[in-house]
Amino acid sequence: MRRRLGFLLLFLLLSGCSDPSRASSEGTTMGFSNPVYDQNFADPQVIAVDNGYFAFATNGALGNVQTLKSADLVSWEQVGDALPSLPSWTSPGKVWAPEVAVHAADRYVMYYTTSDDASGRQCIGVAVAAAAAGPYVDKSSKPLICQEAEGGSIDASPFQDSSGKRWLYWKNDGNAIGVDTWIYVSELSPDGLTLVGPTHRLIKQDLEWEGNLVEAPYLVERNGKFHLFYSANAYDKETYAVGHALCTTPTGPCTKSGDPILTSSNDAAGPGHNMVLRKDNRDWFIYHAWDPAAVGVDPPGRTMWLSELTWSGDVPAVQPPLKDNPNRP
Fold first, then answer.
1. How far apart are CA 92 and CA 152, in angstroms?
2. Taking 50 as the threshold, does the pLDDT of residue 39 lie above it?
3. Which helix (H) or strand (E) element contains residue 324?
4. For residue 243, what is the enclosing H or E element?
5. What is the per-residue pLDDT across 75-94, written as a single tens digit (0 to 9) for each?
6. Which residues, in sequence order, are bridge partners of residue 138?
7. Quick check: 136 pLDDT over 50?
8. pLDDT tens across 186-245, in order?
């Protein structure tokens, strides 16, 4: 009888440990596979809405602003085009790097890059929606930002600091005309639709690994300090990577960390255009990367990846791109 009870107890223990739903509910580490979206989805940004997530990306098969939704950051479902109509000053074909700021449950503000027909440069527009998935509407008669003499303006990224002020970061597209590229910032009006106050230059390309450009800014506030993540080098090469700079205020000054913090691995090449999302007290890098066997080739294009971000004081560390990631968001 004692032996039978022992076998029964062992069976119950093994059954409990092998139940995936139980492991998940108790927070036991479970892995996932990258890329989390294996189709072209360049320059991804993700927002958390109603216990779920929406992701936005550069134009592609799903439309001007490709849009996905997910319940867990790992499994994604196609939604469609968040910006189905463009303003009169632009034309379809080059709608890049959308990012959304959540103002309220019924107000979402999207900043995006598109071609300015008048100047022929890529410039920044702004659109508003009442729902996270859109449709976003841009009623403007001209771009929000268009630094024509500096090559244009791209890669707008909104940020709200702990005091409630809103800011917009972007890059002048200097590499398009052979001049310096700068990461800029300006304060936004409370409604997010206009720039207010002075414009500040933060960093430019001045490290060997950065090549001819810096771009794709994303700011994180942590313990009273501001962390600027940015991408550099050529987007269609395996040398593309993510760098970091520590800033004392949202407008600088900023000091670069030096070497890039996210680079190519055996599983993915040219990782970049990252953002940071916090989930269950853990930070995640969301970014795009190429198949190492098809760098610069579309299709398959740049797919969406996740890597965990950890900290040692003010020093960030990012997992290299891993196809089989041991930790699930």
1. 17
2. yes
3. strand 324-325
4. strand 241-247
5. 999 999 999 999 999 999 99
6. none
7. yes
8. 999 999 999 998 999 999 999 999 999 999 999 999 999 999 999 999 999 999 999 999
Q: How far apart are CA 231 and CA 252, in angstroms?
A: 18
Reading phi first (left if > 0) and then psi (alpha if -120 to 50, else beta), residue 286 is in beta
Length of the chain: 329
The number of angstroms, rounded, from the C-alpha of 13 to the middle of its chain's C-alpha atoms is: 42
Three-state secondary structure of 35-65: CCECCCCCCCEEEEECCEEEEEECCECCECC
243: CB partners within 8 A, 6+ apart: 207, 209, 210, 214, 229, 230, 231, 232, 256, 257, 259, 260, 261
Query: Can you say whether the dihedral through the CA atoms of 100, 218, 113, 251 is positive or negative?
Result: positive
* Cα(291)–Cα(145) distance, integer angstroms: 33
Contact criterion met (CB below 8 Å) for 141 and 165: no
For residue 326, count CB atoms less than 10 angstroms from its CB and return exposed for 0-12, middle for 13-18, buried for 19 or more.
Answer: exposed
Cβ proximity of 121 and 88 under 8 Å = no
In which residue are the tokens 């942590």 written? Answer: 222
Closest by CA position to 164, among listed 101, 105, 107, 218 = 101
